[in-house]
Amino acid sequence: MIELLEKYPKVAEDAVEFWYKAAPASAFPENGGACVKFKDLQIAVFNFSRRGEWYACQNLCPHRMQMILSRGMIGSEGEEPKVACPFHKKTFSLKTGENLNGDTCTISTYPVKVEDGYVYIGFDRGYA
Amino acid sequence: MKASKSKVIVVGNGMVGYKFCEKLRNTDTEDKYEVTVFGEEPWPAYDRVHLSSYFSKAAPETLQMAPRSWYAEHKVALRTNELITQIDSKQRLVVNHLGESFSYDYLVLATGSSAFVPPIPGVDKKGVFVYRTLEDLDAIMDYGKKVKSATVLGGGLLGLEAAKAVMDMGLQAHVVELAPRLMPNQLDEQGAALLKSKLEDLGIGIHLGKMTKEIQGNGKLDGLVFQDGTFFSTDMLVISAGIKPRDELAAKAGLALGKKGGILVNELLKTSDEHIFAIGEAAAHRDQVYGLVAPGYEMAQQVVNQLLNKDVQPFEGFDMSTKLKLIGVEVGSFGDPFGTKEPSRPICFEDKVKGQYKRINISSDGKRLVGGVLVGDTSAYGMLLQMTQNKMALPPEPEDLILGGREGKSSNPMGGLDALPEAAQIWSCENITKGDICQHIQQTESGDLGEIKKCTKAGTGCGGCLPMINDLAKFQLKKLGKTVKNVLCEHFPYSRQELFDIIKIKGVKSYDQLLDEFGEGDGCEICKPAVASILASVWNEMILRQDTIQDTNDRFLANIQKGGTYSVVPRIPGGEITPEQLIVIGEVAKKYKLYTKITGGQRIDMFGARVDQLPDIWEELIDAGFESGHAYGKSLRTVKSCVGSTWCRYGVQDSVSFAIRVEERYRGLRSPHKLKGGVSGCIRECAEAQSKDFGIIATEKGWNIYVGGNGGSKPQHAKLLVNDVDTDTCIKYLDRYLMFYIKTAEPLQRTASWLNKLDGGLDYLRDVVVNDSLGIAGELEREMEFMVNTYACEWKEVVNNPELRARFKHFVNADDQDPSLQFKPMRGQKIPVDWKS
Fold first, then answer.
1. What is the CATH number for A98?
2. Residue B38 · residue B96 · CB < 8 Å
3. Chain B contact probe: residue of A71, A79, A119 with most B CBs at under 10 A
4. A103 close to B (CB below 8 A)
5. Which residue in B523, B552, B835 is closest to A71 by CB distance?
6. Angstrom distance (rounded) from CA B711 to CA B676
7. What is the separation, in whole angstroms, between the first and last Cα of chain B?
8. Candidate from A64, A65, A71 with C-beta closest to B555
9. Which residues does residue A91 pair with via DSSP β-bridges, in sequence order?
C-alpha cells in the first residue's frame, strides 16, 4: 500500500522537466474533474472554471487508498480551493495537497497548463 | 478500598432510589460512602412517569433511568431481583429473601408504593389488573389482545394515563371514577367538565360518581355492578385508584407509620430510627404521602446533603403543580388550584369553540398569583407556575395572563422571562434554576437543547420544563446579541428552507446562478448536493445537466462501493416481480459478473459494476422493462409491502397494489434525505410500515397513515397521523406531508428527526396536513402533482443520449478500465479486496 503512495511524489512548479499532453480541455467537465492515465499512474485533473483555474493531484485518496479523487466535488474553504473525496468527504487543498478536515496524509499535486485547447500535466525527472 | 468507608444501603431501586444513588455519587467526590441498592424487580430502575409509552415502544431499555453499566461505573452495587424482608435496626442489618444479611451505617428506604386496590368483591377475577409495573403492563397487553373493551377504575392522573394506554392498544376505553369529576385533586368542576367532553370526543366513555360494588363474572370478569344497582359490561378492568405506600418492611421493623400509612418521617426525612431515612412515595411527611416524582427527588437531595454534611434545608412539603398531556389534551394545575388555602378570587376564561379553559386565583390583595387550572392550552403554564412560586408581581390587568394579547396588546413572554429571579426554579424535578441554565448558555454561547440537557441534566425527568428551557435559551442568546440561525455552510448565509423559497420565487435554475446572486466563495461538498436536491425538488429537471454539483452516487446514478465500483438497483415496485423479470436480472448479473443480494427494501442489488459498464447494464435492464430504482438518490427508495388480501387469509386490503401505486407516484422524488415507505394489509403489520418515513396500514374501513418512522441507528416508530381514510384521501395526505417535509427540512434530515424538531410536533403536522391550518394544502398538492407529472427515468435518458453516456468512463484519455480494481471470491460470488483500515 505504502509503495502505491510512494509512486506519487509531488511535483513543484519549478521542477517540471516535461509536460504530458493529457486530453482536450473540453473533455473535462466545468467545475469538476476527470482522471488522466499516465503510464501506470492515475492523475486527477480539475477544471475549476468558476475561478478560471486548473489543478491536478494524485487520483489516490490516502485515507482508504482508493482511486477516486477525480470523481470528487470541488469547492473552496475560505480562499483555498479544495476537493472532497466521494467516499468519506476528506477534503484536500488543491494547491498544497494538505488534508483540510482531518489528519489524513497530504496528497501530491502537479502543475497543469492549457495550451491550444489541450491540457498538459507537468512532471519532474522522477516521472520520466 | 479503605475499611473506614461508611455503608449506605438503599432499599428500592425505583426512580427515587436511583436518583438518590445518582445524587450521592455526584456529590460524594471523596468516596466516603459504599453504596448498595436492592431492587425487587428484575431490571434496573425505570421511568414510571412515562410508563404508557411502554405500550408503543415495548422495550424496557428505553424507559431505563440508567443502564446497568452506570451502576458499575459509579461504584453502586446493584442487586436486582432481591427483596429485603427484614431490618434489624439494633444490629444495623438488612436481610434479603435468601436469608443473606448486609450491614449498614445508614439505611435509606425508597420502597415506593404499590397500586391501591379497593376492597371490592371480585378483584381477584381473571381480567382484572393493576397499572403499576412493567410486568403489569405486559400482562395487560397480553390480555388486551383477546378482548375488545377495557375499563379503568380511577379518573385521576394515573387512571387517565392508563386509559390512554388501553386506547392505544385499540380497545374501547372507559373510565369509572368515584368522584363527580375527573382529576378531582387537580381540576375544578368547569375544567374537569371540559376535559370530560374532550375525552368523550375521542371515544373514551366517562362514568362519574360511580361507586363499584362488585366485579361480576364466572372466573373471568364480565362487568361491574355499581352501587345504584346498574350493571356495566366490560372485558377487562385496570385498577388505577391511587397508591398504597410500601411500608410493610418498616412496620415489621417497628418503625412508626403515618396515620394513613407510609413510613413516618420528620422534616429531615428521618424515621423513628436515627440511622434510617425514608424517601419517595413510601414516606409520610406530616401524614401526607406524595405520589409524584418531583418531591421524591427533593427528598433524595436532602438526605444526600445530610450524609455529606452539606447545607440542609428542612423538607417543608412540596408544591403539587403538574402539567401533562392526556391523550392529546393538555392539562395543567399549579399552586392552589381551587383557591381554598388562602382567601383569593378566581379569574376564569372558557372558549368552548377552541376547547380551552383557564383559571387563575389571585390573592385577595390582588398582588400575587396563588394557583390555577389550565385545560386545552397549557402554553402559559411555565410562566404562571414561576409567577406563583416566586411570588412575582402581577401585571396591571391580571386577566392578560390567560387571555393573551388583545386589541394590539401583545403578550410578551420574553419580558416575563427577564423578570424571573435568577433563583427561579425552571426544572422542579431536579431543582435547576434559571441562573444555572443562563450560566451554561453564557459559557458555551450555544442554545443547543441537547447540550443544555446533557450538561445541566435539565429536562431529563418528566420533560415538562423543556419548552420553558427552549424559550430561555433563545432569550438568553438574543440577550448575548447572537442571532439564532441555521445556515447551510460558509457559502450561503441561508437555511435550507430559505434557499428553497429563493430558488422557487426567483426562478433560479442553476447552482452557479444561485451562488453568484445569493452566495459567496466557490461552493463546497455541503452546499452543492443540498442545492442540487432543492433544484430537483422544485424543477425536477434531469440532474445530470449539472453533474458536478451532485454527490458521486447521483453523478453516476449508482451507489459507490468499496474499491470504487458501483451497485445497480432496478425499481421493483412494492417488491412484486415476475419470474421473467427475475430471469433478466439473473442474466444481467451473470453476464457482468455482479454480486447479487436481496436488499432490505424488497429488491435486488447488483454489486461490482465498473463505471464504464453502467450504461450497458442499464440498457439491457431498460430493454426488459425495468427503470431506475433511485437507490443512489436522496429520494424515494422503496415502498415495502406484505402480500395483502389477495393471498393472505388475514389481509383486509390489497397492500401490494396500493404499495405499487404509491411507489410509482413518488418514484424519483428528490427530498432532503432518502424516503422509505411501507404498506401493510392488516394490523399484523408484516411490512413493518411503522419503521418507515411513511407507513400505511390497512383497517377494515380504509387505511391508517403513520409518519416519521425510522430504522437505522436511532430506530423510531412512526406516529399515527390519521385513521381510516380512503385510498384517495390517503394519497392526498401523503402528497401534503411529503411536500411539506421536502420544503421545510434541513439538508440530510430524515422525516423522523424533522418531526422530532418540528415546533408543535405531530399535532402541528396534523393541523397542516389534515386540517390545512396554514392554508397551503392546495399548493402542496399542486407541487406534488407537478413532480409526478414531470417524472422521467434518469437511466433511460442516459442510455439514449450518447453525450451523457460518454461520461461513464474511468479515464478521460484512455478507454482502459481502472487497473486498481481487485476482487476475491466469497461463497461463489465476488467481493472487493479489503481496503486500508
1. 2.102.10.10
2. yes
3. A71
4. no
5. B552
6. 10
7. 42
8. A71
9. A84
Return the pLDDT at B441: 73
Cell, residue B686: 408484516
Partner-chain contact B521 A71, CB within 8 Å: no
**ipTM for the complex?**
0.95
Among B525, B810, B836, whose Cβ lies nearest the Cβ of A73? Answer: B525
Say what the pLDDT of residue A48 is. Answer: 97
Whether B179 contacts B189, CB under 8 Å: no
Residue of B513, B520, B522 best to disrupt the A interface, most CBs of A under 10 A: B522
Question: What whole-number distance in Å separates Cα of residue B423 and Cα of residue B433?
Answer: 5
Chain B residues 530-569 with a CB less than 8 Å from chain A: 547-549, 551-552, 555-556, 560, 563-564
Instruction: Tell me how many degrees the CA angle A73-A78-A83 measures, rounded to the nearest 5.
Output: 20
Rounded-to-integer distance, Cα B521 and Cα A79, Å: 7
Answer whether B812 sits within 8 Å of A35, measured CB to CB. Answer: yes
* The dihedral sign for the CA sequence B299, B304, B309, B311: negative
- Give pLDDT tens digits for B634-692: 999 999 999 999 999 999 999 999 999 999 999 999 999 999 999 999 999 999 999 99
Its sign, for the CA torsion B631, B637, B642, B644, is negative
Contacts of A78 in chain B (CB under 8 A): 490, 521
A6-50 per-position pLDDT tens digit: 888 889 888 999 999 999 999 999 999 999 999 999 999 999 999
Q: Is B312 strand, coil or helix?
A: coil
Enter the DSSP assignment of B448.
-
**DSSP symbols for B173-200:** EEEE-SSSSSSTTT--HHHHHHHHHHHH
A108 to chain B nearest CA, in Å? 18
Residues 575-634 on B with a CB inside 8 Å of A are none
Strand order in the sheet with B205-207: B128-130, B237-239, B149-153, B172-176, B205-207
Q: Give the model's pLDDT for residue B457.
A: 61
**Partner-chain contact B547 A32, CB within 8 Å:** yes
**Which residue range(s) make up the domain with A107?**
2-127
- Show the low-confidence residues of chain B (pLDDT under 50): 1-2, 405-415
pLDDT at site B406:
43
Distance CA B239, CA B231 (A): 18
- The verdict on B490 touching A (C-beta cutoff 8 Å) is yes
Q: How many structural domains does chain A have?
A: 1
Give the gap in angstroms from C-alpha B814 to the nearest C-alpha of chain A.
7
